[in-house]
Request: fold
Amino acid sequence: MERKYGMFIHFGINTFYDTEWSDGRLPVSGYRPTAIDADGWVRNAYEAGMNYVILITKHHDGFCLWDTTTTDYCVNKSPCPTDVVAEVAKACKKYGVGLGLYYSLWDRHEPCYKDNAAYHDLMCAHLTELLGGKYGEICELWLDGAWDKHPWQWDVARLYDLAHRLQPNIAFAVNNTIGKAGLFKLTSRRYLPHRYREGMPIRYFPTDFRLWDPFFPPEDDPKLYSHGGKSYYLPFEATICMRPPNNWFWDPKYEKDKLAGADYIAEKYRSLTAQGNVLVVNVAPDTNGRQTAGDVECLLAAADILGIRRSAD
Reply:
């Protein structure tokens, strides 16, 4: 809750194939950024008054953006072997910005995915690589894609315990946090954030906060949710895509897409932080590994409206 405001950074193999979701079959050879301007990404976040970033480490396609020994579907087997997580971690340390990591539970590339036990071991190996200290302190773990299996198949408690053992101060959550146990349907509307009511069940337990992007909670957002007959206080982290509707990864049409707008970002920042909630804005780097000038200008304009702009000089 004290972090208030952050930047989501969607970057990966999808960036180079003009797609939002891919099925794990895109050739690694197509991942060819001309640079990884991680310093620029984090500097932009810092100057815009943001206190942390959340970097995609593995999306639903299974492509890993860090130097991993667990798969060949990763940056270190690509034409650009730069460990993106390491570069962002270095920049976060430089600017005093928190580092959060996004990791998709769903993996459309990994052969052992359907074997729950084997895949759990793989996920734990991934999280150990990411959270084990190589990249410093990690402030948040944002897990996605749980809808592809039943909640019990993910053994969230094991992942939660591992994350907190490796990073005691980490905030942990699984997307679509609130709702009845059972296979989540993307078309389900009953537990949308604007319909939250105190005491609603926690679908993925344990958790430290709530997620369901890209929606917003009600103005009187309740914080108490239930599991096993007990109540838990859970703030909400909301997401805005700089290029709506829901343009997460950069694509060739990106410059033609309408910006979310500085006034809109400022309005949502004020509303969410007044509720004790958090806002992140997604700003996608392009195929040159850089964030576009229009996006950065919009963030800085929002920071000026809010009076939170900083200078990195």
